[in-house]
Specification:
The chain is of the alpha+beta class. The chain has two domains: about 60 residues, no CATH class; about 70 residues, no CATH class. It is built from five helices and seven strands; from the N terminus they run αββαβββαββαα.
Length: about 160
């Protein structure tokens, strides 16, 4: 399963702006991070995604209120995530995970890196372009990054 953290890392886009960055000391206790100051100020809302940066154990993307974190105290940043691009990325993430489950999940036949195999008097060759997905690309394109390349590009953050 591909996580939102992995997708954002691939995109080099965490759907944040400088005003969404909150620096400070943060405490994770009993698996929960204390962010009441951000909630009280309206910078973070229930159900909103946020990014933790600077943590030893918990760097990544979470949905507020996050649970199951590793307890620690750290100096770092919390970035509130928002925008239309984030909604589009979440929808794409669902499609990516469905594709991964279908073509790379248990019981799929494209886990093998080989286009053809033969053993014990039996041989077969995978059809080129077979198993095509909704995007029209071959399912044996290998990775989700290859499979969804054009759609990922539209969400990538270009830095100048």
């Amino acid at each position: 399963m591909i996580t939102l953290t992995a997708l954002c890392r691939e995109l080099k886009n965490y759907f944040t702006a400088d005003e969404d960055k909150h620096l400070g000391d943060f405490v994770v206790e009993d698996g929960k991070i204390e962010l009441s100051d951000l909630v009280d100020s309206g910078s973070l809302h229930s159900g909103q995604y946020f990014r933790i940066v600077g943590s030893v154990f918990n760097d990544g993307v979470y949905q507020y209120p996050a649970e199951g974190l590793t307890d620690e105290t750290f100096s770092g940043a919390i970035w509130s995530m928002k925008g239309d691009g984030l909604r589009e990325a979440l929808a794409l993430l669902d499609e990516i995970n469905a594709w991964e489950a279908k073509y790379h999940g248990e019981g799929s036949n494209i886990d093998s890196p080989y286009a053809s195999e033969s053993f014990g008097g039996y041989s077969y060759t995978k059809a080129a372009g077979g198993n095509s997905s909704a995007s029209g690309a071959s399912a044996d394109a290998g990775t989700w990054q290859n499979q969804f390349h054009s759609r990922l590009n539209s969400l990538r953050k270009i830095r100048v």
